Automatic annotation (TrEMBL):
Keywords: Cytochrome c-type biogenesis, Disulfide bond, Redox-active center, Signal
Name of one Pfam family that matches: AhpC-TSA
A GO molecular-function descriptor: antioxidant activity
Signal sequence range: 1-17
InterPro entries, sorted: AhpC/TSA, DUF4369, Thioredoxin-like_sf, Thioredoxin_ResA/DsbE_sf
Gene3D superfamilies membership: Glutaredoxin
Domain of life from the UniProt record: Bacteria
Domain Alkyl hydroperoxide reductase subunit C/ Thiol specific antioxidant: start-end pairs: 258-371
Protein name: Peroxiredoxin
Amino acid sequence: MKKTFSSLCLCTLALMAAMLTSCNNKKFHINGTVSEAKDSVLYLENMSLDGPVVVDSVKLDDKGAFNFSGKAPDAPEFYRLRIAGQIINLSVDSTETVDVKASYPSMATGYTVDGSAECATIRELALKQIDLQNRVIAVQNNPNLGYDLTRDSIGKLVAAYKEDIKRNYIYKAPMRASSYFALFQTLGNMLIFNPRENADDVKVFAAVATSWDTYHPDALRGKNLHNIAIEGMKNVRIMRNKMAAQNIDASKVNVSNIIDISLLDNQGNRRSLTDLKGKVVMLDFHVFGSNGSTKRIMEMRELYNKYHDRGFEIYQVAFDPDEHFWKTQTAALPWISVRDPQGLQSQNLAAYNVSSIPTFFLIDRNNEVKKRDSQITDIDAEINALLN
């Protein structure tokens, strides 16, 4: 009898161990095909809080079939399939199997997804984001629109997009992975929902954070959302306090037709864009660490040398994270070189509706923005017209 009881105990323990091992080995699967991509490398990347991390990859044959798998997450997790610059965003929850079918090189917009309602919704959001980007580019490239009308038009496009996403996706189901995904969509280099300085956007982040607390307790992403929301609330409160504390003498207000930028140059001196009134100015947004920077700087030198004596100036704003590198790169430049320490999250980029860098604006002698680069076909003709 003792032997039988002992055997039963051992069997029970073995069964429990097997079940525990089985639970720990639960996996998700991402299968499918990418046609027209023979010999291309397809990557599966985890979109971690620190950026994309390669999980697996496969060199596709003429059939384009692939089969990835990974450990099932405790809370929704985000992945992407990538070939070069073509990306398909996905979310994974537990042990589901996601089936993706696409064709290269248009896989980012022409794919289908089955097996996951969240992935289907993320596809909707991704296509909406691409459509917004295309419409913004169309407005920027319209030569018939001046700066003010371009800025207002883009502002209305973005505001309408945010309202649609808030009402029909985020507030409708804030606990979903697709709602989390929507919070971090971008327009160029900028977040569409900016919790660092927009009180309404802070509320959106807070709504998703609170919901994730309930449905995905202890999830690292939920905690990250809370931190972002709290930081955003502090920033908004600080900005409001500064505005409330200001008691500006009307006689000291500088009336200008331009949104001013005031930053330290590479010699440590504060330089303001509005101080250049009376000159024709190229307001340039640049990253010296980017590809093509040297060639672009050489082209700007030619313009500066050609027109500076007639009243032409360049006010260049750099967004490089490394201040020492920036100072080294700008030490020999003859024009005004300033650096924005906020980097790609700068309010200056948002104020000028800059969605990609490099880009520039031409400003007349009255401190009024006349055109941006996408509206210019002959830069010499435009500068000459403003100088005359």
